[in-house]
Amino acid sequence: MDALRTVLAESTDLLRSTLGGTVDEETAAAAEADRVPQEFLDFCRVLDGASCGPSLMLFGLEEAEEHQFYCGPVAGSPLDLSPEKLFCVGLVNDTPIFLDRSGGGVLGIPDAHREWVDAERFEPLAPGLEAFFLERLATSEYLRFASVDDRSAEYDDWLKLLRRAGLVPGAGSGDRPCREVVPPDTEP
């Protein structure tokens, strides 16, 4: 996280809102009293939200509290939606991403569905929120997960940030190249 924050501070061309701040203990305690899951609060103590490109948002605490309507039952939906079971932590392509309150896993909707409420099941995305961020959003997996193509990459500040931090290979328009790992037998 420190590497991303450092690169963001050095990158005057990227949106400052790409990475959120942190949640203080007083705010976290108040949110816990309002039944915000502990795992989400622990994550917000390190990173209170991230705007991961034009199609993916990982909510900060305040935004998450405003988006819990996604957890409520929807007439005709086969999904077991319930605010007692789920906590909405973000959106990808206007489809909610949930934290399972009982197991802590991050859940999404299978790609095959045009409208998320029509899905018959949730798809496990990661065993927890930290793993979701580190394995899906802060790696080259982000490109697939957020459906980033060559055209949209030019406007994707999150992708630029990942590349500049050396977390995703390649360079985009105006980016400095990421650090490359050179195998020992090919060093100049």
- Give me the number of helical elements: 8
Largest sheet: 6 strands, antiparallel
Could you give the distance between the termini? Answer: 31 Å
Shape: globular
Number of strands: 6
Polypeptide structure, described:
This protein is 31% helix and 13% strand. The chain has a six-stranded antiparallel sheet. It starts with a helix and ends in a 24-residue tail after the last helix. The radius of gyration is 18 Å and the shape is globular. With 188 residues, it is of the alpha+beta class. 32% of the residues are buried. β1 and β2 form a beta hairpin. It is built from eight helices and six strands. The longest helix has 9 residues.
Topology, please?
Elements: H1 2-10, H2 25-33, H3 38-46, E1 50-51, E2 56-58, H4 61-66, E3 86-92, E4 95-100, E5 106-108, E6 123-126, H5 129-137, H6 141-145, H7 150-153, H8 157-164
Antiparallel strand pairs: 1-2, 2-3, 3-4, 4-5, 5-6
Short description:
With 188 residues, the protein is of the alpha+beta class. Helices cover 31% and strands 13% of the residues. It has helices at 2-10, 25-33, 38-46, 61-66, 129-137, 141-145, 150-153, 157-164; strands spanning 50-51, 56-58, 86-92, 95-100, 106-108, 123-126.
